[in-house]
Design a protein that fits this description.
25% strand; 15 strands; 7-stranded mixed sheet; Rossmann fold; binds NADP nicotinamide-adenine-dinucleotide phosphate; alpha/beta; Quinone Oxidoreductase, Chain A, domain 1; 6-stranded parallel sheet
Amino acid sequence: MRAILCRNYGPIDDLVLDDVPPPELRPGTIKLDVLAAGVNYVDNLIISGRYQVKTPTPFVPGFEFVGRIVDVADDVARDAPHLTVGTRVLVVSGEGGYAEQTVVPAHAAIPVPDEISDGVAATFVQSYLTAVFALRHRARAERGQSLLVLGAGGGVGLAAVDVGASMGLRVFAAASSEEKRQLALDKGAEVAFDVRNDDIKTAVRELVAAEGKTGVDLVYDPVGGDHAETWLRTLGDGGQYLVIGFVAGIPSLPLNHVLLRNRQITGVEWGSWAGRNRADNEALLSEVMHSVAAGQLHPVEPTVYPLERTVDALRDLAERRASGKLVVVP
Ligand SMILES: NC(=O)c1ccc[n+]([C@@H]2O[C@H](COP(=O)([O-])OP(=O)(O)OC[C@H]3O[C@@H](n4cnc5c(N)ncnc54)[C@H](OP(=O)(O)O)[C@@H]3O)[C@@H](O)[C@H]2O)c1
C-alpha cells in the first residue's frame, strides 16, 4: 500500500511516498481504509522533530484522520462491539493518516455520524476542541463579550470565530487575504480586518467604545510573533490574552501592559489537557461532534489534495497560502 514516510526528522521535502507492506492488526487495534487525513500546523512540527511529543522514526505522519474499518482484532470484536467492519470512525492518534491504510488502537476510534462529511470529520477535532477548551474552559467567555481572533482564516483561528459566534460573542477577525477574511465573515465574524494594513487596535477600540469598554475582552492568538504586544494593548480593562500558538515565533510581552489594566495572559494547551483528562475530552468531543452534526457549529469543507501531493499541502499551510482547512485523500 502507498504511504508517506518520514524516515528522519527534517524538512517536509524529505518526506517520501513509498510502497510499504500493509500494517498488521494487533490485539486491541482496528484496521482502517483511510478516507481523508487533515493537514495541521502540528504535522509540520512533528515531521521536523519540533513537537513536544517525539514520534520514533520512521513513521507515517498524519495527526488526525477519518477512515472506514476493514478489520478488527478478536478482543476488540468482543469488548467494543460498536466498532464493526464498515463503520466510519475518526481518529486523533498523532500519526498514521497519510497512508491508504492504518492500524490504530480501538480506544482512539470514534464513530462519525452520517451528517458529517469525510473532509470535515478529518479536520475539525483539533481546531474546534482547542477553540471550545480555550473560550469556555480557560477564558470562561460570556455572551456579549468581544473577541479578536488572529490568524482567523487558518484552521485554529477559523474554528475560534465559529465557536465564539455560537457562544454569542462579538467576533472581530484579522487575516492577511481577502479569501481568509471572507471565510471568517461567513463563520460569523462581525468585521474582518486586513492584518497587514489596518490599524486594528484603534478600530476595535472604536467598535467597543459604545459599550463603555476600553478595548476588547479577549484576544485569541495562534500566531504570536512581533505583533503580540499590539494585541496585548488592544485588550481593555480586565481583558484576557489567550496564548494558543506561535506560527510566527514566540513573542516576549511587556508585563507592565498586563499590570496596567488588570489584564490577564492565559495559556491554552488542549492536547496536554486532553491527554490528562481523557473522559472529559471524550465528553467534549462527543458534544462538539453532535453540534457539528446538528448544524450548530460549521467547520469549513477542506481543500482536497491527493496523497502524492501531501508535501504541497504541508507547504501551502506552512507558507500561509491555505485558507480554512486542507485534507489529504489517498
Ligand atoms: N494551544 C493549543 O491547544 C493548540 C491546538 C492546536 C493548534 N495550536 C497551534 O495553533 C497554531 C495555528 O495552527 P493552525 O492549524 O491554525 O495553522 P494555520 O491553519 O496555518 O493558520 C495559522 C495562521 O497564522 C497566520 N500566520 C501569520 N504569520 C504566519 C507565518 N509566519 N507563518 C504561517 N502562518 C502565519 C496565517 O494567517 P494570516 O496569513 O491571515 O496572517 C495562518 O492562516 C499553531 O501554532 C498550532 O501549533 C495550538
